[in-house]
Structures are given as C-alpha cells and as structure tokens.
Specification:
10 helices, single chain, mainly alpha, 3 domains, about 300 residues
Length: about 300
C-alpha cells in the first residue's frame, strides 16, 4: 500500500542518515586520534586533504541522493549525482596525475587501528627486554601461551598469542605505510578509464536514456578494459591487490544493473530467494527482507553504479 511504501522509504532514509553520520564520526575520530598521537599519514598535507574530501563524499553520497530526490524530485536527484561524481573524478584525477598516488583504493584512507594505539604499561619495557618471560611454550604441544605475569588489563587484552598480535600489528603498520606502486603510461590510462567511467556512463544515459543497452555496455567495456590493462602490473602492495580483487568482484553488479536486471535477472533472483524462503527452514528470515530490499537497492544510483 502507499502508506506502507512511504513508511518503508522514511525508515530507509533514516537508516542511511545514521549510517552516513556514523561513518563521518569515525573519520573525524580517526583524524583527532592521529593528531593527538602525532601520527600523520605517509603523504603530503594537500594530498591528505584531497583524500579526506573524497572520503566525505563517499560517506554522504547515498543519503545526498535520497534526500535530494525527496526534496527536489528526479531532476534534483540526477543533478546531485552528476555533481558528486564530477567532484570525485576531479579529486581522483588530481591524486593520480598530480600526486602520483597510484591505484585508487577504497576506502581512500585506511581506518586507524585502535588496538595498535594501546598505551604501553610501565612494565612493558621490562617485559620486552626479558623476551621469553612473556610466554610459556608447552613441552608436548609446543603451543605458545602468555604468562600470567605479563597479562594486560581486560580493556586492552588480546585473546591471540603475543606472536599473532605482533604479526597483525606489523601487517597493519605495513599496510598504512606502503608507498603506491609507480604506474607506467598503460596503467595510468587504465586507472584514468576507471576514474572517468562514472562520468561517461552518466553522459551516455543522458544521450541514449536509461532503457538503452548502450550505457550498460559502455560501462562494462570500460571496467573490463581497465582491469585488463592493470593485470600486467607486478609487485603490487597488499592494498592494491585487494582493490583489484574488489573491482573484479564488483563486475557481478552488472547482473543487478538495468536494463539487464529488468529483463533477465530480476525474475530469476526473486524466484531463487522465494524458493529458499519456502523450502529451507530458517532462511526465510534473511531472504524475505532481502526480496523487499533488493528493488529499493537497485533504484539507488550510488548503490548500484557508484
């Protein structure tokens, strides 16, 4: 009914507002902690500002689309979509071409690892100098456990072995401090294609319309071309490899993007979810809300195409 649809839309917009606000608070909290700990990102201040603005846009883009659509209608919705995508493309091109930031990763700024920022206890220096006194190795199992004397407080306790914590922290520190892999001409063109793909898709939508296959095909060709050109790049760091895997997985979104979704995917996906809800005990609690959520998700541009 219209009243139910209105309540669903209101609750969805409210949940998106809470989600966007929480992401902004995490971003602000990370900035405050880095400032207090005098732990700056391994890049210049202007580059940090560009990444911060890019992060803010990614936090608020969905809510901005939904809020603008409710206030100014469809024309306002597409206007804010174009403006946000244009701003994001400009920021990313500046990072790529001017600051040589390499492959753009998501999220733009690595979240601060709060476990790694735990203050050292007075006896930590002494324990570290003793080394083996921190742990005990079982004679039969060879399992490493922390000694009771070096157990930290409950608030800062880590339930893995000391070696696991040290390895986790070293990997996290390495991930934050990794320098971007230098890109050659081919890789720079590939990354530029990936960055400008949203703008070209929006332009093609304006030319051929939302029902045409041409914007869908153009976007798919650009995404696949970018990944193919970047596949020859060797010696990528951990974040860059994860980003390329993420982009490859996101190709599955083309099954949920119109017009492919409207003509082929929608009926089959909803039928599969309905069968799972009817014949698999307990799964209906997940699949039935998903059936209601999927059409709404599919209509949000920044969920589907962003």
């Amino acid at each position: 009914s219209p009243s139910f649809a209105g309540r669903f839309s209101d609750s969805y917009a409210l949940s998106e507002l809470v989600y966007s606000a929480s992401n902004l608070l995490v971003l602000l909290n990370d900035w405050i902690l880095r400032k207090e700990l005098q732990q700056s990102l391994p890049m210049s201040l202007p580059q940090q500002k560009l990444l911060t603005w890019l992060s803010v846009l990614e936090c608020v883009e969905v809510f901005a689309e939904m809020g603008t659509a409710r206030v100014w209608g469809e024309m306002g919705r597409w206007t804010i979509i174009v403006l946000i995508q244009l701003a994001k493309a400009i920021l990313r091109l500046l990072l790529l071409l001017w600051y040589k930031a390499g492959i753009q990763t998501s999220p733009p700024i690595v979240p601060l690892n709060r476990e790694q920022q735990q203050p050292l206890r007075p006896q930590d220096g002494e324990d570290n100098s003793l080394g083996r006194d921190q742990t005990y190795i079982g004679k039969r199992s060879s399992r490493v456990v922390r000694s009771l004397q070096s157990t930290p407080s409950l608030q800062s306790r880590h339930w893995g072995s000391p070696q696991q914590r040290e390895e986790s922290q070293s990997r996290r520190a390495e991930e934050v401090n990794q320098t971007p892999t230098p890109l050659g001409l081919q890789e720079t063109i590939a990354e530029s294609i990936y960055i400008t793909r949203p703008l070209l898709h929006l332009l093609s939508l304006g030319v051929w319309g939302q029902r045409s296959w041409k914007p869908w095909l153009l976007s798919a060709v650009l995404d696949i071309s970018s990944l193919s050109l970047l596949s020859d790049l060797k010696d990528l760091n951990r974040r860059e490899r994860a980003e390329l895997r993420r982009r490859t997985i996101l190709l599955l979104y083309y099954l949920l993007r119109s017009p492919f979704y409207d003509r082929y995917s929608e009926g089959r996906i909803l039928l599969l979810l309905r069968l799972l809800a009817d014949y698999v005990p307990g799964l209906g609690f997940v699949t039935r809300p998903l059936m209601d959520y999927l059409p709404a998700w599919q209509k949000i541009y920044f969920y589907n195409w962003g």
